Amino acid sequence: MKKILIVDDEEVLRMLIADTLEDLGFSIEEAEDGEEAWEVIQKNSYDLIILDYMMPGMTGVEVLKKLKESTVKKDIPVLMLTARSQQKDKEELLAVGADYFMEKPFRPMKLQELVEEIFHV
């Protein structure tokens, strides 16, 4: 079973994503901010991290940078969620190491399709 970490400071959004992906048979863990995310990333293995761009404290971009600098965890694919839709924002995310990104707000079906594509389901 594939294991996914959802990191977002909005509890309702985490629940929506978790419900969508659990219905597909994925194992889900959640973190509500960047600091908590970094702690659990260091202790656990994940097949995908869904990471919010803007969070209080450690941002998603900061978590992404730390992850990609890590020798052990750098190969975990990261799907960035962002309300920022400018081309320069997307380019920044890709340059930092994001593998995928999705603009907020999004439809759960679109997220489901992207995750299925990532795992070749």
TrEMBL record:
Does the keyword section mention Cell division? no
Question: Which PROSITE patterns does the UniProt record give?
Answer: RESPONSE_REGULATORY
**Residue stretches making up the Response regulatory domain:** 3-119
Which Pfam families does the UniProt entry name for this protein?
Answer: Response_reg
InterPro entries associated with the record: Sig_transdc_resp-reg_receiver, ST_Response_Regulator
Keyword annotations of the record: Phosphoprotein
Indicate where the modification 4-aspartylphosphate is found in the sequence.
Answer: 52
* Protein name (Swiss-Prot/TrEMBL): Response regulator
Species of provenance: Evansella tamaricis
- Upper classification of the organism: Bacteria, Bacillati, Bacillota, Bacilli, Bacillales
